[in-house]
Specification:
Elements (H helix, E strand, L loop, with lengths): L3 E2 L5 E2 L3 H8 L5 H6 L1 H20 L1 H26 L5 H34 L4 H44 L3
Antiparallel strand pairs: 1-2
Helix pairs in contact: 3-4, 4-5
């Protein structure tokens, strides 16, 4: 028997979001599953091109030519979507400056790093630069998740320290 049973005893195959979407008429499972091979082929091509960019400097430069404006547009649109309830003028000003600007600065830093690698090593160091980019993106993502918790711990610890110090110096 395929699938597992929920607490209510209903059997499903594990793709709860797809089942829920199909249940409310938002997604046709038959048509959606027909698109899966196309999506996997597109993913495979994208991965192959990205891996090729690590080894072939001209592929890397071609990808940067496309990725730089795409990053600015994506940053702008995502920021605008996150500010959905803001007044439209404020929403789009913040989206362009904060979202598009930040994405543009990060992408420009990446492009300049790759160009420096290409200019100084003739592209020999491109795999190391790509590995460094991957490591830094993972590390910064982990930091973005962990830093708020570390900051909260620091604030709580400082509060306990302040409270104990104040209590110890209070007249008896």
């Amino acid at each position: 028997m395929r699938g597992r049973r929920t607490l209510a005893g209903d059997r499903h195959d594990g793709d709860g979001i797809a089942w829920a979407s199909a249940g409310v008429g938002r997604w046709d499972r038959a048509r959606g599953s027909q698109r899966l091979p196309l999506a996997l082929i597109a993913l495979g091509v994208a991965v192959a091109v990205e891996l090729g960019a690590y080894l072939l400097p001209w592929v890397d430069n071609a990808l940067d030519t496309v990725a730089t404006p795409a990053a600015v547009i994506a940053g702008t649109l995502l920021t605008a979507l996150m500010l959905g309830d803001a007044p439209p003028a404020l929403q789009w000003i913040l989206a362009v400056v904060a979202g598009g600007g930040t994405a543009g600065v990060v992408q420009t830093g990446t492009v300049l790093t790759r160009a420096a690698s290409l200019g100084t090593t003739g592209g020999v160091a491109n795999p190391l630069v790509g590995l460094g980019e991957a490591f830094l993106s993972i590390a910064l993502t982990a930091l973005s998740v962990l830093v708020p918790f570390l900051a909260m711990g620091l604030v709580v610890g400082a509060g306990f320290w302040w409270f104990r110090r104040r209590r110890a110096t209070a007249p008896a």
